Every structure is written in C-alpha cells, then in structure tokens.
Amino acid sequence: MLNNDRLLVQILLLALLGASLWVLAPFVSALFWAAVLAFASWPLMRLLSNLLNGRESAAAALLTAGWMILVALPLVWLLGNLAEHVRDATELAKNVQVEGLPPPPEWLHQVPLIGERLVRAWHSIDAQGAAFFASLRPYMGQAGNWILARSAQIGGGMVELVLSLVLVFFFYRDGPRMALFVERGLERLIGDRAEHYLALVAGTVQRVVNGVIGTAAAQAVLALIGFWIAGVPGALVLAIVTFALSLIPMGPPLVWVPATAWLAWHGDYGYAVFLGIWGMFIISGVDNVLKPYLISRGGNLPLVVVLLGVFGGILAFGFMGLFLGPTLLAVAYSLISDWIGDAQPQPVVSTESLERENRPS
C-alpha cells in the first residue's frame, strides 16, 4: 500500500511539473535570454553589489535600468531612421510614377558587358512608367503581406526583448538562490558529479558569450576602419549597427553591402571595390576564425565539437542554438568521456603475483 501511495505522489508531481512547463512555454525564449544576459554580466552585478554595500535589489535595479537604456535608445533611433527611410522610399516611388525616372547615372554606361543593356532598360522603364507600375501592382500586395508578416515578427521580437530585460532583474536579484536550487536538484539526480556538470555548463556558456561578444566587437572595429578609409559618412554609427547585427548570423553584410552600393552610386568605384573586398574577407571573414577560437579557448572540447555545436545549434534552435548547441554537445561529450573512462578494463593480476604478494616474508 505504501508503494502505491508513493507511486501516486510521483505521478502527481510529474503531472504538476508538466503543467508548469506548459504554462511557462510561451516565455521560454525570454527566460533563456534573461538567464544568458544575467550570467554573462554577473561580474558587473557582483561589483555593483559590493559598491552598494550588499544591497542586491538596488544593484539589480540599476543594472537592469542600464541595460534598458543601452538597448532601448539605439533601438528607438534605428526604428526612427527606418520609418523615415520607408517614407522617403514611398515618396520616391510616387514621384517616379508621376514624373518618370531621372537620367541614368554615368557609371551605369561603364558597367562591363551589360552597361548598354542596363541603360536601354532604364529608358524603357522611364518611357513605360505607368504601364510598368501597373504591371507591378499585383506583386505589391504580396510584398505588402510579406512586409506585414515581417513587421509582426519584429514586433513580437521587441516584446520578447522587453520581457527579457524585465526578467533579468529577477535573475540578478535571486541568482544565487536559483543556482543553489539547481545544484541541489542535480545532486538528487546524478550525485557527486553535479558540481562538475554545472561548472562545465557555466564554462561553456561563458566561452560562447565571450566568443559572440568578442567577435562582434572585432567586426565593429574592422567595419569602422573600412568605413573611415572609404569615406562613408556616419562611420561610427554604422560600426555600432554592425556590432548589433553581428550578434545574428549574416548580420554585418546588411551594413557594408549597402555602404558599398552607396559608394558605387556616387561614382567612387575604387573605394566601392575596396569596401566590398574588405567587407567580404575581413569584416565577415573574421567571424569564421575568431568566434570558434574564442569559444574553444580555455576548454577541453575539440574544436570540431565546438563548430558542430555552434552551427548545428543555430540550424536546430535558431539564434538560441548559438548557446544551446555547444552546451548540449559539451555535456554529452563529458558524459560519454566519463562513461568510457569508467568502462576501461582493470589490469589483470596473475595468480602467481597474488601468491607472491601474500607469501610471508
């Protein structure tokens, strides 16, 4: 009877755990990013708490407010500029539809092989402006739906970002208690190896954070140098945008490709070629070298495991996989290594050696 009661309690606990996970499922992404941000910036939290004589709530509130200002101000500026450019593009489309296209730029004639065809296409579109825009009208609805869907995704991402910045306060304030809770839970599950695996996960996440942030900073500095050399206006702002976009896969080309096109549009072909080569091989190329090195540095994981974890995690889980992939592979690699080490055969002791050891001297 006692075993049946214990089984019933275990079933109820599992059901309660499943229901709790179901309730938290919509907030998994926000909780994950809040936990990663709090863990990566925990030295700042410790320093600020010491400066405030151990007042953890005040330190958590100040640090959270700092993150909100640091993230919110560039985001508002970026969205404001984006809205302004959308209005400019809409006004340009209306003017072109009414007044026609301006004369083709001089550099269009000089494009090798296809320059004359591009100029003829330019004049053809100008001559058939109304008919051309009428032919585009069926596709404008599809483009509008696509933009609307992307806008909804961006809006959802903004809400998730704000929620992450709110939740990070609680991770700062209650971080030590959460860590102790997780450690005791793991000790109940896997015994004495709990501390080892917690240190493994913490080290892996810290190296991934260092790799991501370090690579983004390097790409921003290299982009700033390239923009300064090429004479692109607003080089510092573009470098900051490059840093932000470096946190997502294939983000930096969204900055240096339009800058290269702007240089070509204004006839600076030499600087346009330079910036295109610099962007492809230096700004974007450093990501393939520096990030794996920083992530694997200081750990005992093979580099191939790190690379598979980073790229496979992104493909499997999206941007969260950048942290989940290497962490999962690190834990799996450590578990298999422990299992193989425990399974190694013990040295065979012969009967003669046993008799020799037990023989009285």
Number of strands: 0
Task: Give the structural class.
Answer: mainly alpha
Mean pLDDT value: 78
Assign an overall shape.
elongated
How do the SSEs run, as a string of H and E? HHHHHHHHHHHHHHH
Radius of gyration over alpha carbons? 29 Å
Key terms:
361 residues
Structure description:
The chain has about 350 residues and is mainly α. The protein is about 85% helix and about 0% strand. It has helices spanning about 1-25, 30-40, 40-50, 55-100, 105-110, 115-125, 130-190, 195-230, 235-245, 255-265, 270-285, 285-295, 305-315, 320-340, 350-360. Helix 8 (about 195-230) runs antiparallel to helix 9.
SSE inventory with pairings:
Elements: H1 2-24, H2 28-40, H3 42-51, H4 56-99, H5 106-109, H6 115-127, H7 129-190, H8 194-230, H9 235-245, H10 253-265, H11 269-283, H12 287-296, H13 303-317, H14 321-342, H15 351-358
Helix pairs in contact: 2-7, 3-4, 4-7, 8-9, 8-11, 8-12, 8-14, 10-11, 12-13, 13-14
